[in-house]
Design goal:
There is one protein chain. By secondary structure, the chain is α+β, with helices and mostly antiparallel strands. The chain has a single domain (about 5-175), classed as 3-Layer(aba) Sandwich (Aminopeptidase), CATH 3.40.630.30. About 35% of the residues lie in helices and about 30% in strands. The chain has helices at about 20-30, 35-45, 90-105, 120-125, 155-175; strands at about 5-10, 50-55, 60-70, 70-80, 110-115, 130-135, 145-150, 175. Strands 6-7-5-4-3-2-1-8 form an eight-stranded mixed β-sheet, with helices on both faces. The longest helix has 17 residues, at about 155-175.
Length: about 180
Amino acid sequence: MISKISDIYIRPMKSEHVDDIVRLEAAAYGNHHWSKESFLNEIQNELAHYWCAFDSCENLLGYAGCWQILEEAHITTVAVSPEFRRNKIGEALLKTIIDDCYKNMIKYITLEVRVSNTAAINLYEKYGFKSLGTRKGYYQDNNEDALIMWTENIFYDKFKLLYDENIKCLAEKVEIKCPV
């Protein structure tokens, strides 16, 4: 059964969250997932910006992160607990990453996503990401291809108008409480 969420609390990822993150990572991705050490290293990485989503009872709902280098951000991971999917949590995390990119004057955002992950691809396309190719056999667990997706410059009016429209619709469905 999928639980309904009305408020999402977004906070920077911290080391005390990592045990819960690793459990969620395993639930979301199965046996082939990041290790505890990988997340602890990312938290210490000055280029990395990672966020966690919680409900009002402090239950971890999801997490996402990216690396910001010069004018570009690369989304490294997004995961939502299977029992809380379809509650706009992934979208709230994506919004947080984009807001952080605006704050840090990052112009372009890129990512790889499994070609079979239609839900994620639809979300990224909704926010203006475009497919610019594939990485053959990118995922080691099953040799699946990855779709390479990019935004145009997020400071361009076309992107900003689409973004503003999307976050207005998002705000009508869920309240996001975020430090960014």
